[in-house]
Design a protein that fits this description.
By secondary structure, the protein is an alpha+beta fold. The protein contains seven helices and 16 strands. The strands form two sheets. Strands 1, 2, 3, 4, 5, 6 and 7 form a seven-stranded antiparallel β-sheet that branches. Strands 8-9-10-11-14-15 form a six-stranded mixed barrel. Helix 2 packs antiparallel against helix 3. The radius of gyration is 19 Å and the shape is globular. The protein starts with a strand and ends in a 7-residue tail after the last helix.
């Protein structure tokens, strides 16, 4: 059973509902985070909540008091689940509420969902995934908005085997995937778009740290679509995916169509170093 904190109490998720007047419903005004929980302990919760604070500020949502409450709400919720050994996902959402003051939202609502996590399958980890090109620039990349429509539209028209979409600007710069950070390996270097062009990915930052600590050269620049054919391998990172190999983007096969050693090594390093970021 999924648990939800809403209106100052914990209840089953199916008992929670937003008013139809909330601007999250009417205009897509809202921000959220996904925090991985391993055996009752949050992973990088501080970094996720810092990013959520930046997202709501960038959205014009006045949610300073809500941000202060969230750590206690999350820990209280975890204590109610599976004897403190919950393995899953916590998702805090902050909505625009009912008042739109010319782009400022002074009366937000918030809720926190505690639910199971849908991990990549063993086959996806073993064989790699395919991304569908999305040839637009992601709007407001520093805000983790609840509005994923522009990332989902190309996916709905593509093959159902595609994992998610990949933003590629009209100039051919690859930025990020719909809900993941994207990395390209070429000529002994790892290439990934810089923060500002993309969302500040929490797992992205951890993987860059681990890569540099272990002798990898990481270039923070936007890889080009034209570089896909020359790439040795590619992968995405994220809260749920951790490190997941990419073997094709659209019709372009990458690295012979098989997961490469860099992604596999970084996934091992991630698992070995998890304790460093446990909250």
């Amino acid at each position: 059973m999924a648990l939800c904190y809403y209106n100052e109490k914990f209840v089953p998720l199916e008992e929670c509902a937003l008013p139809m007047t909330d601007l999250a419903i009417q205009r897509g005004v809202g921000a959220f985070e996904s925090i991985r929980i391993y055996e009752g302990t949050p992973f990088a919760m501080k970094q996720h909540l810092e990013r959520l604070e930046g997202s709501v500020e960038g959205s014009g949502i006045e949610a300073g008091e809500i941000i202060k409450k969230l750590p206690c709400v999350i820990r209280d919720g975890l204590s109610r689940l599976e004897n403190g050994k919950f393995d899953g996902l916590v998702k805090p959402y902050i909505t625009g509420g009912d008042i739109n003051n010319k782009g400022s939202f002074p009366a937000p609502r918030f809720f926190v969902i505690f639910d199971e996590v849908h991990k990549p399958t063993e086959e996806e980890r073993k064989s790699g995934i395919t991304l569908e090109p999305n040839r637009v620039a992601r709007p407001f990349p520093l805000i983790k908005s609840t509005n994923y429509l522009f990332g989902l539209i190309p996916l709905s028209k593509a093959q159902k085997t595609n994992f998610e979409t990949l933003y590629i600007t009209p100039d051919g710069e690859i930025t990020e995937a719909m809900s993941s950070s994207f990395f390209l390996c070429k000529g002994g270097r790892i290439i990934t778009a810089p923060v500002g062009s993309v969302l500040r990915g929490v797992t992205r930052e951890i993987i860059i740290t681990l890569a540099r600590e272990n002798g990898f050269q990481v270039d923070e620049r936007c890889p080009l679509e034209s570089e896909l054919a020359e790439a040795d391998e590619a992968f995405i990172t994220g809260t749920v995916k951790e490190v997941l190999p990419v073997v094709r983007v659209g019709s372009q096969t990458i690295g012979g169509g098989r997961p490469g050693p860099v992604a596999q090594h970084l996934q091992r390093l991630f698992l070995l170093n998890q304790a460093r970021w446990m909250d």
